[in-house]
């Protein structure tokens, strides 16, 4: 594949040397420039990007190169392609995207939205392990919240969530409880924080103590512990979540490519 240099474009774009090695395939260089514009909020969640011909003119490349870059970003979940309408920034407010990171499926019937019940919300100094996971300095503040996800009033997931306080200034328990859409949709709409990808660790544990009571299970009941670190652009961590999952009527589903 041809390798080329794309000249710097005035505005939010930067010289390719800032975002991608000179030997990258051309479409990857365009992909890097588009990702930079997304990270700078040139196009916000749910907004349409310029058309392929407009982007081709902007970057001085062929329309086919732009299309390949857009397709790559769509495959990563950053963009959504809509036939006859254009290309849009992916948003967790969309039904097909909002469950992107929640892989719990019911044994019977289709997946339905779970009810949320917030139990606790605190601002505190990040414990050492949380600070490391979120790439914070010692003494930085985090927001800690605990919630239940319920199916038909039955607890299924108990989440402990930590967020770096700075990007979520003004977030309160009241705002979380009042928001009716997915939580990541709130983060996008009101704080400009988009969850782009996530890393997970999964292990089997036994229910104990207060967690068993909250999930309404007997002590020593088998649970899944799912630890998820969610990242935004430039692989910056913006959430750590530890969830205890009941699996009597649900299973954890993943697709491997």
Protein model, in words:
Helix 1 crosses helix 3 and helix 2 packs across helix 3 (63-75). The chain has helices at residues 26-39, 52-59, 63-75, 95-98, 128-133, 173-178, 183-191, 209-215, and strands spanning 79-82, 86-89, 104-106, 115-125, 141-151, 154-164, 197-206, 222-232, 236-245, 250-252. The longest helix is centred in the N-terminal third of the chain and has 14 residues, at 26-39. It has eight helices and ten strands. It folds into two domains: 16-89, Orthogonal Bundle (Arc Repressor Mutant, subunit A), CATH 1.10.10.10; 95-252, Chorismate lyase-like (Chorismate lyase, 3-Layer(aba) Sandwich). With 257 residues, the protein is α+β, with helices and mostly antiparallel strands. The strands form three sheets. It has a six-stranded antiparallel β-sheet with strand order 4-5-6-9-8-7. Strands 1-2 form a two-stranded antiparallel sheet. A two-stranded antiparallel sheet has the order 3-10.
